[in-house]
Design goal:
By secondary structure, the chain is mainly β. It contains 2 helices and 25 strands. It has one domain: Neuraminidase. Strand 16 and strand 17 form a beta hairpin. The longest helix is centred in the first third of the chain and has 6 residues. The protein is globular, with a radius of gyration of 18 Å.
Length: 308
């Protein structure tokens, strides 16, 4: 890591959520709030930094990820299905109304939805993972839109899909299989749900035990990756070289986004999943949401799925 600056500041807790398995954090610029999921706790979380409002709603199945929809609703990828959540109704009451959109791999007992994100052209891209302990690469990557429904992307099978995000022009897809210490990228055609020229974008092999997890792209083309087991978030330049390392006070950051009113704050959700009793005692705030002021407006506004 010679020549790679280590942040002098460590992200601080802003929501002591202690999720069973926090994931999928996004910033909604229109509402000025954060949304994320607790996979193992089967919940959707919301936090509005401006006034401190924090809410959570139970879900009928484990959520893997979420996407903002143009009409203000939220697209949820639950373990075995895609759902549309009425966020306005949820904020006005205690229940979060859901509408089923499509099943996800109902014929595969050991897979569930995992990481995902809206692309830059009104679609939602997500992956499925194999939950069997051996993590065979039987998962897949999909694109969903209200126009075309669910379409599989022509990528090889995957064990634990993560790091899904898109370049500013929406023509490059970034992704990974977390069992491999590398982040990939490929050319992406949103209209036909095709990909081409898949290649390695960055190697994640400089830190023992670190695996690539959720990512976000910034306004300069840099990719920020939360590294599970590495207790850090790493920014990679557009050429894949390491640019900056942000140390985390807990070992398993799982996803990150850049938001806040000035799009100048790094938010990181974390997870205690798989930690032993000693580690849970040492890191009691694992599963909470952290924030770090970046000092410059690096964020790109989160893309949205075109409304039905």
């Amino acid at each position: 890591m010679v020549g790679v600056p280590m942040s002098q500041s460590v992200p601080r807790i802003i929501v002591d959520s202690r999720c069973a398995h926090g994931e999928g954090v996004v910033w909604c610029a229109r509402r000025q709030l954060l949304l994320w999921v607790d996979i193992d706790g089967a919940q959707l979380w919301l936090h509005r930094p401006g006034d401190g409002l924090t809410r959570q709603w139970p879900l009928p199945d484990r959520p893997g990820c979420l996407g903002l929809v143009e009409d203000g609703s939220v697209l949820l990828a639950l373990a075995k299905g895609l759902y549309l959540a009425d966020l306005d109704a949820g904020l006005d009451g205690n229940e979060l109304p859901l509408r089923h959109l499509a099943p996800v791999e109902p014929e595969l007992a050991h897979t569930r939805s995992n990481d995902g994100r809206a692309d830059r052209h009104g679609n939602f891209v997500f992956g499925t993972m194999n939950e069997h302990p051996e993590h065979a690469p039987t998962g897949a990557f999909y694109q969903f839109s209200f126009r075309h429904g669910l379409r599989r992307l022509p990528l090889p099978g995957v064990a634990i899909p993560n790091s899904i995000c898109f370049s500013a022009d929406g023509r490059t897809l970034y992704y990974c299989d977390s069992v491999r210490q590398q982040i990939l990228c490929a050319g992406y055609d949103p209209d036909t749900a095709q990909v081409h020229d898949a290649r390695v974008f960055a190697q994640v092999d400089d830190h023992p035990g670190a695996s690539p997890d959720g990512s976000t792209l910034d306004a300069q083309g840099g990719l920020w990756n939360a590294q599970w087991g590495g207790a850090r978030v790493v920014r990679y330049r557009a050429d894949g070289s390491r640019d900056r390392i942000v140390p985390m006070p807990v070992p398993q950051p799982s996803c990150c986004t850049i938001g806040g009113p000035g799009l100048d704050t790094l938010y990181v959700i974390t997870s205690p999943q798989g930690l032993g009793d000693d580690a849970r005692a040492q890191y009691p705030h694992s599963g909470s949401l952290y924030a770090l002021a970046l000092g410059e407006p690096l964020g790109l506004e989160e893309s949205r799925v075109a409304a039905p």
